[in-house]
Design brief:
single chain, alpha+beta, Porin, 60s Ribosomal Protein L30, Chain: A, 2 domains, 8-stranded antiparallel barrel, 4-stranded mixed sheet, 4 helices, 13 strands, elongated
């Protein structure tokens, strides 16, 4: 049975090699699946007769276009020469592979790894041993994701340091990873534009007789603007500038509200504004006093930096949790109490 599979695999491999496809080699980041069939040669003193067929599969990952890792499971049937009956061998190992691409399709590689072998006879006790293996192989790519594969390994098991040989044939299917982009098209060279025609120079017209300019009109009298009206009493502007819990950042959505204050102060330049900050009742009194001061300072800084209000006409003071305008027992009430108020006063 194995001889027929071996001949069919060799014929398929040879047909692929002598064809002329153009495909890619292994690529970084891809996952590989590799079913295979083959033969296994025992050293001879282990008491196991060779079988015509074994099979297995590998699952791998490519770290780069050349370096990868592969976990392999292989089933090896045989017959016991001493006790009689069948034996069932299992190899499980983890190998590292390094590829040497010759062309885009022909990729030889070397491999080495560690693992174990378990021999389970029909008659007698099963036993397992540590093994190391090394060898190499060849991959031939039929498409970007499919390749034929031949592999030979020297397997050393450390029960009594037996030296065995494994040879397999199979396929490799890879998916994922980085595919090489198609080459960029060559730029189209546009012909140089035809030279522009030389401009026709017309003769300059004869100069007109000079006309004396009319005398400049007398300047209009400068009318001084009426002085800005003054406010004689204190005005409170309760602007809806609210803050997040334990925050003093002025959100951009209050920009227009603060612009109204700035315009008001510029319209009445002989007035000053007192900015008062407040908090809800959560937190200690000391913390809330500092937080309310930061909120008042933040509004003062916003008016100066965004609208150019004279900083000497602005004062800021924090009052902590004093003077609530809503109940602190509800979330909505606490939000209203986290606020800033402005009072406009005439300069003394």
């Amino acid at each position: 049975m194995f001889k027929k599979a071996f001949v069919a695999t060799v014929m398929l491999f040879a047909a692929a090699v002598f064809s002329t496809p153009v495909h890619a080699a292994p690529r970084a980041g891809c996952i590989t699946v590799s079913p295979f069939v083959g033969g296994y040669l025992w050293e001879g003193n282990e008491g196991i007769e060779e079988h015509d067929f074994n099979a297995g599969a590998g699952l791998g990952y490519m770290f780069t276009d050349k370096l990868g890792v592969e976990g392999v499971f292989q089933y090896i049937p045989g017959q016991s020469e001493n006790a009689g009956g069948d034996t069932h061998g299992y190899i499980y190992k983890l190998d590292g592979l390094y590829h040497f691409p010759i062309t885009k399709t022909i990729v030889p590689y070397v491999a080495a790894g560690l693992g174990g072998i378990t021999i389970n006879p029909d008659r007698g006790e099963s036993h397992s041993h540590f093994l190391v293996n090394y060898g190499g192989g060849l991959k031939y790519y039929l498409t970007d994701d499919l390749a034929l594969r031949a592999d030979v390994r020297h397997i050393v098991s450390f029960n009594d340091t037996y030296n065995n040989m494994s040879y397999t044939f199979g396929i490799v299917y890879q998916f994922g990873g980085r595919k090489k982009p198609a080459p960029a098209p060559k730029p189209v060279v546009k012909p140089a534009p035809a030279p522009a025609p030389k401009p026709v120079v017309k003769p300059a017209p004869a100069p007109k007789p000079a006309v004396k300019p009319a005398p400049a009109p007398a300047p209009k009298p400068v009318v001084k603007p009426a002085p800005a009206p003054q406010i004689k009493k204190e005005v409170t502007l309760r602007i809806k500038i609210e803050f997040d819990t334990d925050k003093s950042f002025v959100r951009p959505r209050y920009h227009n509200e603060l612009k109204k204050v700035a315009d008001y102060l510029k319209q009445y330049p002989d007035n000053q504004a007192v900015i008062e900050g407040f908090t809800d009742n959560r937190g200690s009194a000391v913390h809330n006093m500092k937080l309310s001061q930061r909120r008042a300072d933040a509004v003062r800084k916003y008016l100066v930096e965004k609208f150019g209000v004279n900083s000497e006409k602005l004062s800021a003071k924090g009052y902590g949790k004093e003077n609530p305008i809503a109940s602190n027992k509800t979330k909505a009430g606490r939000q209203k109490n986290r606020r800033v108020e402005l009072h406009i006063k005439p300069l003394k």
